[in-house]
Amino acid sequence: MKLKTKHRPIQRKVLIGIVYPLLVVAALCTMVPLLWLFSSSFKNADEIFAVPIRWLPKLPPRISSSPYIVSDSYPKIRKPKSVDKDIWKTLQPELENVIREKVQQHIETKPLFVDSNILQDLQSEMTKGIWKQTATTLPIEVWTESSESVVSQAEKVIIPETLDTIWNNVYRQIAIETMEIEDNEFNRYKMDHIKWVSTTDTIQQVQETTGSTPIAYLNNDFQDGNDAIFTTSVESPIPISRIRRIILPVRGNASYHHLSLSISSIATTYLPTRPFVLDNALRKDSVWRLHGIPGELESSQISMQQYVSKQKLTKSVVPQTDRENRLMLTVTIHRPSYLSIVWNKLTTNYRKLWKAVPFNRYFINSVFIATASTLLALFFCSLGGFAFAKYQFRGKTILFGIMLASMMVPFQVLLVPLFGLMYDIGWLNSYNAIIFPFSVGAFGVFLMRQFIVTIPSELLDAARMDGCSEFGIYYRIVLPIIKPALGALTIYTFLSSWNGYLWPLIVLRDEAKYTLPIGLANLIGIYRQDYGMLMAGTLLSLLPIVILFLAMQREFVQGMTLGSVKE
């Protein structure tokens, strides 16, 4: 017996040394999806779909001039596994020569304003990009053929579309396309052949060979300052007092620099309330609103503030004009501090989320519906559980059995009759149809009944003898004792209502009444697939659940005190 007693502490230590690390590993594994969700909310599309997987978001580069070349966009050229080393020594130079010729031909068709060093980097990065596309496109059998056949096959798969894709991924430059002016009657006027000028020779007006749309490519260098200013003079078809919006298509360079537009006419100047952030390298309309109130789908537009005289301006702008229809436009590209650039990059998905959809309204709708459903469920389920646990009436056992049997009926079976009932009542497209049908649940009544039945009846009888009413017994005696059960039911009901998708999607028709699950699901569609914005919205939707768990954890884990009465 003594030997067994001596071995017990050793066995316990060994058990703790094995079980505790396994529990920690299991806990970390359960946190991986949440950590991935958190990390992806700060990533752009390229980082989310990167191969190999990027676990952390990439910090933006420090850009001091534009255009620039994205370095290390593609991996270095490596030998395919199915190619022999000796063959690869002669095959690699031939493949690189073919790719370089294709790249050089493509670069010659593009407007370039770069020095020789940037041009060499561009050729090198594009060559690596084309090689990656070629290596993944060619079948494995091709690499076992002769060198001439491999080179010929590789040359065939290098198509203009692939070259354009690699070009857009590597070469970054700010470009401004044809501007449009919109009046108060929503009529639009295109302003063709605008000539942008600068105090230094950093801008050139070019004409793309593939179309007739003039595009101004802006070259800027921030070695001597943090601002690059470009101006132009436009003869507007309408006076500035009737201009509602100015649409300026901008192709960014993913530098996260700020682009601002100032508009001036006679003694009136309009300055933007916030800048346009160059957070990607895609073409995007920058919309500058001079007059009118923006609608729900126009929240991303930049409002302009009017100044009557130059003395009221906080900074210098372009000179005033002598005619009302003559507009002086100033585009300022500002390089903020690197900390501001990092902040803009990490919060891009969150800012886009608020601009793309009415996220605040979705959030408030979900909070209201989940809170109302939870409060009603707590009241009616606890009241029903109290009746089934402490009252005797005819048919009690049968009613309780029917209620338990209803838990075996799938909700999908009840969709059609429940929808017909809501239609007859007139509750379609209203919150009533989501809140009231689920204010009492069989699971909640059963949970409350199982807790309340353990309360000694003598405690309730003593309250009756003291003159307490039946509802007073329920409110003053029963509810304080069953707090742990109420905490568990609160979490269960709130979580079910908060994550509800199918029934609200069927009942609600007005987008202003959508809940968060429906609104977030609409972020991904045929014409919009922004997974970074979806990750940001999903992460924000988890905050109420986390707060609820933290607030109810004490009630959820504490035990019931049933020692109030001595036997």
Q: How is this fold's topology laid out?
A:
Layout: H1 2-40, H2 45-48, E1 65-66, E2 68-69, H3 85-108, H4 116-137, H5 147-157, H6 160-170, E3 171-172, E4 174-176, E5 179-183, E6 188-191, E7 197-198, E8 203-207, E9 214-218, E10 220-221, E11 227-235, E12 243-251, E13 258-265, E14 268-272, E15 276-277, E16 283-289, E17 302-307, E18 326-334, H7 338-346, H8 348-356, H9 359-390, H10 396-406, H11 411-425, H12 432-435, H13 442-452, H14 457-465, H15 470-481, H16 483-498, H17 502-507, H18 516-521, H19 531-557
Helix pairs in contact: 3-4, 3-5, 4-6, 8-19, 9-13, 9-16, 14-15, 16-19
Folded structure, characterized:
The protein is of the alpha+beta class and about 575 residues long. It has four domains: about 40 residues; about 100 residues, no CATH class; about 160 residues; about 200 residues, Orthogonal Bundle (MetI-like fold), CATH 1.10.3720.10. The chain is about 50% helix and about 15% strand. It contains 19 helices and 18 strands. The strands form three sheets. Strands 4, 5, 6, 7, 8, 9, 11, 12, 13, 14, 15, 16, 17 and 18 form a 14-stranded mixed sheet that branches. The protein has a two-stranded antiparallel sheet with strand order 1-10. Strands 2-3 form a two-stranded antiparallel ribbon. α9 packs antiparallel against α16 and α16 runs antiparallel to α19. The protein is extended, with a radius of gyration of 34 Å. It starts with a helix and ends in a 10-residue tail after the last helix. The relative contact order is 0.08.
